[in-house]
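User: Sequence in, structure out. Go.
Assistant: Echoing your sequence, followed by the structure tokens.
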Amino acid sequence: MSETWILLGATSSMARALARALAARGDAVLLAGRDTDDLQRLAADCSVRGAKWAEAIAFDARDPGSFTAILDRAGAEDGVLNAAVFVGSMPDQSAIDADPALIEGTVTDSFTGPARFLQMLAPMIESRGAGCVVGIGSVAGDRGRIGNYVYGAAKAGFHTYLSGLRNRLTRAGGHVVTVKPGFVDTAMTWGIEGMFLVAPPEKVAADILKAVAKRRNVIYTPFFWRYIMLIIRSIPEPIFKKMSI
């Protein structure tokens, strides 16, 4: 039986890869983001690939007024309702250091905006007794690092929110998967120095679908980032605060 998926931030490389994979298996995809022209092209692509239906709709994490139309459209469909959240912004830490006003937008895009949307979606999943939320976090949220600690803090908050939402939805038959990508080939990471073992978006999408099917709670993708971050989290603070990572 096909399912309905809401993809927030659907123009991101990872979201595009997931949308295409969902379309290929016949699911319906509601593609939400700010660039509706680009989303319409993606919707046409998904329709050709076999989606039950594919539509573009406006979404802005900083504009809660855009949330209702998405929820109304998805709620009009019967059956299982899922959501995947790819929204986030990561200004250079040096830019934030120069202009602390950038913190508010970073936190809204990467945490509080998506959390508010999911808080509105949760009762719909509970009422249906099924459904999955996929929240895209980041390895940056595992420990504050000098290179991106504001973005990392926003993602750490989102991780904690997803953990609580998982506890809530599990009681009603739903589920939440927290996804922590390492370096992925996306527009957000383009041009950043020091990246290694960069994963293609299609790899992340495949890992997400496996995690949903197995009702995993938290995954790192690619998998070896679990061990990289275990090492980073284990470094004693007196040593860690002298490191430039």
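User: And one key feature?
Assistant: The first strand starts at residue 4 and ends at 8.
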